[in-house]
Amino acid sequence: MLKRSLTAFLLLFTMLCSTGCAEKAHGAPIPQTTTEPSDSVLWPKEKLSLNSEGIPELRVYVVDEQNARTMSIETYVEGVLAGEMKNDWPLEALKAQAILARTFVLKFVQDKQSKYPDADISTDVEEAQAFSASDVNEQIRQAVSETRGMVLNSNGELPYAWFHAHSGGATELAKVGLSWDKAEPPYTQCIQSNEPQSASSSADEQLLRDAQNWVAEFTMEEVETAFGPGGVMEMIRGLKEKGIAKNIGFSAHNEDAALKMIELYDFDSVLFPFNWFMNMEHGMGSRLIKVAKEKDMGVLCMKAFIERSWENDAERLASPFPKSWCKPIDVTDKEFGTAAMKYALSLGVDTLIPPGNFASFSFAVNHIDEVLKNPLNEKDLEFLKEKLNSVRGKEFF
């Protein structure tokens, strides 16, 4: 069966430029841990009954069973813990997550109503928390048992138990990180995190490499199903019709895949790697930009600043940009950086999106006016042709 590397994934282009905390939350200290049921923290005791051991019980709609059933909050937290984390992770990490999960469900029951009938909450990850009863093991049970009844307490109230796997170096306010549209909770703060920036073992290092270079493959039949009745595009089109989404765009790394996407739906924009090397050597992007312009689509360019793929992990890890998927152009070479920008713009793109590293991003910002005033010329082309000789035959992705 023909498979294509449809690294094309749908994006609702709600573009956020996160530059750190522009403001700080004021007032309350960081929430503390307390034990419930207790008069020291408000919890929805009027909505939940207690079992014979005095543990609150929940009506949980189990999506896999399509049925609601009663379980103690501790049993529910075990399933959540196994769904949100790997069951062989450090015990203290599991215990911390158990406290968060218990706080989360009580806050949910207190403030919200499950969309499922006869249920306080569900195992639907879109509504609440991940859940996997089949992955509960002795370590999970121990973590829940050793934190039994413990919740977070913010001045006598249950806080929102938001959490992350990795903050990227610093935490963020809810209004920025979660598009929170209510008043900023007094306990959310921007702080530098102490998460490890490198792997501690060869196995973890491999996991990081795999995470940086994952590829999802779909058959054309699967793609057409996604665009057909009941597919994901039906939901996305509905968002635009309701005015929730103003424009719908998509991103792709494969030109055939991008053209197929445009054939299946009238998108507003496309994000694609219009790169000097790949276009000069292979014509990559030329067909796409012609079709996109004919359809009056917005054309966003990524990877204009890429020179080539990394030769190996050693080269990547020794560079100033070990997190970059490909090897960026060294922008201390101004002629190379500006020529690459000019080339992408000469193809007809509307917007250049530079890499996330500060050197490339600031270079683009500082030189965009110059590049727009002095478009691609013969000297620039000759320069890029010379550079092409040094990367010819090398991989790009």
Query: How many helices does DSSP assign?
Result: 14
Assign a percent range to the helix content: 25-40%
N-C termini distance: 24 Å
Fold-level CATH name of the largest domain = TIM Barrel
Main sheet: strand order: 2-9-10-11-14
| Main sheet record | 5 strands, mixed
The CATH H-level homologous superfamily of the largest domain: NADP-dependent oxidoreductase domain
Number of strands: 14
Number of domains: 2
Fill in the keyword field for this structure.
5-stranded mixed β-sheet; TIM Barrel; disordered N terminus; 2 domains; alpha/beta; 397 residues
Summarize the structure.
The protein is α/β, with parallel strands linked by helices and 397 residues long.
Verbal overview:
The protein is α/β, with parallel strands linked by helices and 397 residues long. The protein folds into two domains: 32-177, no CATH class; 220-391, Alpha-Beta Barrel (TIM Barrel). It has 14 helices and 14 strands. The strands form five sheets. It has a five-stranded mixed beta sheet. A three-stranded mixed beta sheet has the order 5-4-6. Strands 1-8 form a two-stranded antiparallel ribbon. The longest helix is centred in the first third of the chain and has 21 residues, at 91-111. The two termini are 24 Å apart.
